[in-house]
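Hi V.,

You were right to ask for the full record rather than a summary. Here it is.
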Amino acid sequence: MPDRRTLLLGAAAAALAAPALLRSAGAQSAGDWPNRPVRVIIPWPPGGSTDVLARILCEQLHAKLGQPFVLENRPGASGNIGMDAIAKAAPDGYTQGPATIANLSVAQFLYAKLPFDPEKDFSLVSMHWELPNVVVAPAQYTPANTLQELIAWLKSRRNGVSFGSPGVGTTAHLSGALFCDRQKIDGQHVPFRGAAQIIPAMLSGDLTFAIDNLASYMPVIAEGRMKAFAVTSPERWPTLPNIPTMAEAGVPDFVITSWCAWVGPAGMPRPIIDKVNAAMKEVAADPTVQQRFMQTGAKCVWSTPEDAAAHAARQRPMLAEMVKISGARME
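Predicted structure:
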C-alpha cells in the first residue's frame, strides 16, 4: 500500500500534468479539425450580398479543408440574431460565419443593449469581402438618368420619398440617411429583412430608391430593370466602369464601403483560426474566385486576424457619427 505522502505527490503530479494533457488534446483536436461538417450561420436572409458571397467562400473552404461548410440563414434584428447565435456557440471551430460592418462596427452605437459584445465575443479569422454601395432606383418609375437629376426629382416629390435598407443601422440605412440629410431630401427610411425584399418593393413602385450593397443589385442593373446612378467607393467599380463615383457625380465626401469579416465564437483555438485563415488566403489569391466575386459586385479580400480586428476598430468613430446623423436608436 502506498503511504499518504506518496499519494499526495502522485496527485500533485497529476494536477501539474493535466494542463499539459489538455493542451496536447486541444492541439491534436485542432490538427484533426475539421472531421465533420462546419455550421456557417448567415445573419442575413438568402439572396443578399452576405449570403451570396458566403456561399462562394464556403464552396472553396469545403474543397480546401475537406468537410462541408453548411449554411444556415438566421436573419433578423439587423443581423443581431445570427451574430448572437455565433457568439454563444461552442468555440470548437464548428460554428463560424460572416460578420458585416453593421455587426462589428455599428451595432454598439445603435442599440441600447446587445446580446453580445462586438469587440469581445468573437474570434476574427480574416477580412472576407469589401464592396461599395450603389445608388439605385427602378427604371420604370424614375425619369432621372444622372445623380443630380435624381436629387432634383427626389426633392420635387410633394409627399416625400422612401429609401430601403436591409435593416436599421446597416450601411444602406446610414448611407440613405446621410444622403437625404446632406441633399435636404424628405426621405423616409423603410427597413426590410434584406435585398430580396427591397428589390421587389422598388420594382413594384412601393419604394423610391436605395443606396445598398452593389452585390445584391448587379443582376437587376444588368437586366436594365434598375438604374444605377453612382457608387460609394473612392474609385469607379471595375464591373460598372460607366457608373461614376459619388464625387464624380457631384456629391463629395461620400466614400462608404461595406465589408465583412469571417468570425467564430470568442475562444476558438488559434490553430483552427490559422487553418481557416490560410485557406482564405489561398481563396483570395485565386483569379477565378476573384472574378466570381467581381461578377457579383464585390472584391474578395484577405487579412490577418489582427488586421481584421484593427479595421473594425478604425471604422467605429465614423460610423458612430453616421448613426447620430440618422437619429436611429434601438432598444
